[in-house]
Amino acid sequence: MPTPCDASPADFLPDAPDASHVISVSALNRLARAALETALPLLWVGGEISNLSRAASGHIYFTLKDAQAQVRCAMWRNRAQTLPFRPENGMRVEARALATLFEARGDYQLNVEILRPAGAGNLAEAFRRLKDKLAAEGLFDPARRRPLPTFPGGIGIITSPAAAALRDVLVTLRRRAPGLPVTIYPALVQGADAPQQLCAALAAATQRADGVEIILLVRGGGSLEDLWAFNDEALARAIAASPLPVVSGIGHETDFTIADFVADLRAPTPTGAAELVSAGYFSARDALAVTARRLRQSITRQLETLSQRADRCALRLIHPRDRLRRARENAIYNEQRLRQAMMIRLGEFAHRLSKLQLRLNARVPVPAAMRRQIDGIGERLDRATRALIGSQRQRLDALSTGLRQLNPDAVLTRGYSIVRDAEGHIVRTVTGLQPDDMLAVQLAEGGIDVTVKRLRG
Length: 457
Prior knowledge:
By secondary structure, this protein is an alpha/beta fold. Among the domains are: 9-122, CATH 2.40.50.140; 127-277, Rossmann fold (3-Layer(aba) Sandwich); 408-457, no CATH class. It is 46% helix and 18% strand. The protein is built from twelve helices and 13 strands. The protein is flat, with a radius of gyration of 61 Å.
């Protein structure tokens, strides 16, 4: 297969149609996209951002341009969320992207996977080389790091006097260790002259003329270029040679510089550096407050105990006359309670006895009364039996009368008759009869056979 350098676009067309074949626009764009993505590999492209827009979906769209040309770019949300900086118009960047074609509009564009400020790759390589060099010399060895004094006599701060990081450090130290002496050694923290000034400030702080026992090297957050002064080799060696322990608090928690690796202790932020060096005073203040609270509680408990003992002793100092009076009152009170208890107990026994007497009287048999009760029950039973027999007899007579009235034979005795045709069916109307039909007539006594002579409607 031809390489991207010596091949023509036709060499990459998959199954390209012949010249006489007509294809749709969408098919053409699909072929163009396939040829473009096949011919151009994933590569780095440098330029200036313009026409940047951020969609509500999280995607970023912008144009990458130089003096002679421009190309549209798209960075999808899953990639844009990992950016360590915020892209802006006019920013020079380097994009690792795949050249493609947006088929719906036929626009040529770059799908960006990685975006970094221009020159970041060179700085990162220089950072890596210096880090490897100093690590090989043992400047990062944990064994050479000096412990921080728990209660330092003074703090030296190396930073820019106009930096917000200085205000954050001072506020933190004033809050956590108000009486701790602080000396500020001003120096640039950004730019070409910053490393030299930082080294000079570090040398001045190590003279111990101001009673400094810990040095804070602090700066606020920024890009790799903004923090580059702290990646200087001379500064790293000056930190390593410092007779005083150095605490670095440079940038944000995710920022790392060579100074962080050489320092005796790295803090994630300038405020964190101030908290680390004041930790002893802060802990002592808390411990002192806890001790004072416990002492107050102990004294209070002792006073309460002694007061209770005094009260108990005072209660024991009673005059014999008062003791006799209290004993007499207690005897009278106990006698009254005993009388009341005896009366209540006797009342309960009397009530229980009366209930038992009533139950006993209710169960003693009385022959005369029981005889009268039996005679009354017999009379009621006799009357009920006679009444039941009479009512049943009346019901039987009524049923017999109804049965006699429903008897067909009883109807025939009153002059009626039953007429049946030759098949034995009862004839109720003349419908279906013909002259000369034979009919059977049943009378109250006997029956006759007749022949139909004439029909009357």
